Amino acid sequence: MIAEGFKPEQQYETLRNSSVETVRRAIRNGNYRGHTAGLGKGLLQCNLVVLPERYAVDFFRFCQRNPKPCPLVGVSETGSPMMKTLGADIDIRTDVPGYIVYREGLPAEEVPNIIDLWQDDFVAFALGCSFTFEHALMQNGIELRHIETNLTVPMFRTSIKLHEAGPFSGETVVSMRPIPRNDVERVAAISRKFPYAHGAPIHIGSPEEIGIKDIKSPDWGNAVDVRPDEVPVFWACGVTPQNVLAQAKPTISITHKPGLMLITDVPEDAEIPVLSQQQ
Amino acid sequence: MIAEGFKPEQQYETLRNSSVETVRRAIRNGNYRGHTAGLGKGLLQCNLVVLPERYAVDFFRFCQRNPKPCPLVGVSETGSPMMKTLGADIDIRTDVPGYIVYREGLPAEEVPNIIDLWQDDFVAFALGCSFTFEHALMQNGIELRHIETNLTVPMFRTSIKLHEAGPFSGETVVSMRPIPRNDVERVAAISRKFPYAHGAPIHIGSPEEIGIKDIKSPDWGNAVDVRPDEVPVFWACGVTPQNVLAQAKPTISITHKPGLMLITDVPEDAEIPVLSQQQ
Fold first, then answer.
1. What distance in Å separates the CA atoms of residue A89 and residue A152, rounded to the nearest whole number?
2. Could you say which of A77, A123, A277 has the minimum Cβ distance to residue B161?
3. Which keywords describe this protein according to UniProt (chains A, B) (predicted)?
4. Could you tell me the end-to-end alpha-carbon distance of chain A, in angstroms, rounded to an integer?
């Protein structure tokens, strides 16, 4: 249990060595509101999109048609906040460290939980996140600049069109990681093994070809250097839905705060993002 | 163009060496009503489930929660028969060689097309199929008994519970392929690479552990021998939804006839089952 009054850095260091139950309790009780990178080691983490059910069929279609930015890993029953297939006791109203509430597609407020906002017609969608393939890359000896330098990965709007579904359309958001030229092929092959975590890179090498004007000015996150022996490698990014909501303008929608993800009970190397089935 | 009056075997042999456009035209015109194994070489083939939109959110949930039997590879707009993300001109009403119509979940009739049955509230779901990983296994030198002997792969009901979603629940249907003991690990690793085609085996070795009483009496398809040096290997099967419809009892639903699949324009080794995106 994390005591109130801890400084965020102390909390993070304590939670980094804690069980997922302890981490989840600290988040649920409002005692930890920081980022989740490195917490719940080895477990799948997710992006979150909550929408009223009348948008659900189109959002399902949107995710099915755009599985690289929006790999669907879990969906609640309509009106139920429990993510049954992702854990034994995951309550989507409290188990993310921070939420953004959108009205008509625009960010309206940031809240620590969504207990009072929850509606009987809400459906919660969990989407895979890049932590999974980043861990696999690091286990294979690939160093990631933004992690080494303790920065948030740089993210960019692109000209890569999404397949539309109902009101959901727009362009893909990507994250960028500089990779040594000789490692690019191996990095692509490793990340391709994780279809629930954005899969293989969506573009390699030329930011201008995908509509990125200045690699030093990301739209989200922090700029990182690309050294002469390195190539900028771009992956589809879980921030894409937040970009799409701005255009779709649902009356109300809720996402996680970037970097503050849902930690599940599913191992991140599981073949499918579903708690093992009972027989 | 396949002339009327051809014998099915002659048609099949001709179409086997034809372009996908020719194959699709023959199917669309009602001139070919046979199985699609070996046709449209190198292209993704799919199982089909058509449902009224009021069942769509739950069926989406069902597929998301059971991605091994039900890997979703394409979904139509409500009321539109075109499968836009799977091909430039795929009409789900005519482009499958044979359909089964279910009323209250029970097979009511078999029809060569569903033009007259199409409803404004229909949503068509395409699910990946085992042809994809079978081709990859054969390319890696693994012989498949049912193909060698020109039989339909044996399929069995099991006790492996599905994750339910609304009215959709029940048990997984599996297909079985005997694999030489020494190749089992390699076969599992190869098929795991195809998450949109049922992925890795769901069980290896003991039919009785998954509720199969007699390996020589499949529920669908033909029995094949398991030789002393072989192990029975079980994959989740695209016939599962047909089993589930019987319990869900939607007023009307339509599937392909087993073995008579939808042939798409998407390469079967594509990372995602979506025609390449325009930029």
1. 29
2. A277
3. Lyase
4. 35
Segment B167-189 shows an average pLDDT of 97
Q: Is A3 on the interface with B (CB under 8 A)?
A: no
- Domain co-membership, B140 together with B120: no
Pair B68, B107 in one domain: yes
Tell me the CATH number at A72: 3.40.1640.10
CATH of the domain at A159: 3.30.2040.10
Q: What is the ipTM of this complex?
A: 0.94
> Alpha-carbon distance B90 to B40, whole Å?
14
Contact B163 A277 (CB under 8 A): yes
A231 to chain B, any CB pair closer than 8 A? The answer is no
Q: Rounded mean pLDDT of B6-32?
A: 88
Tabulate helix, strand, coil % of chain B (nearest 5).
Answer: 25, 25, 50
Q: Which residues of chain A have pLDDT under 50?
A: 1-3, 278-279
Tell me if A271 and B195 make a contact (CB, 8 A cut-off): yes
pLDDT number for residue A277: 55
pLDDT at residue B8, rounded to an integer = 66
Q: What per-residue string of b and e applies to A33-51 under the rule 16 or more CB within 10 Å gives b?
A: bbbbbebbeebbbbbbbbb
Instruction: Give contacts of A75 with chain B, Cβ < 8 Å.
Output: 60-61, 64-65
Same domain membership, residue A229 and residue A174: yes
- Total number of domains constituting chain A: 2
- Domain span at residue B15 reads 1-32
- Chain A segment 237-276 residues within 8 A of B by beta carbon are 271-272, 274
The helix/strand/coil state of A219 is: coil
> Is the four-CA dihedral A126, B190, A176, A13 of positive or negative sign?
positive
